[in-house]
Request: fold
Amino acid sequence: MKKILLGFALMAILTSCKEETKEKIDAAKNAMKEEVKEELDSAKEKAAAKLDSVEAQVKAKAKAKADSLALKGAEKMEAAAAKLKATVKK
Reply:
């Protein structure tokens, strides 16, 4: 009789511990999911900020290049106009 009661008591202890362990595992999984989601969101935000920064730099360089080309074109047009005026006066 003692062995049967001892067996039931042991089974009850193992069963109750098993449920607590499952709960702890589920809690740990949920915590890990949240942590990974937060890290992914953080990485997305950093990547978006870096992309915006790079895009702004590229636009600034393109604008500077376009302005430079326009200035060179204007200088050439002025030189051609001056040359034309010189030939017309002769």
Notes: The CA atoms of residues 59 and 65 lie 10 Å apart. DSSP finds one helix and no strands in the chain. The helical segments are 2-89.
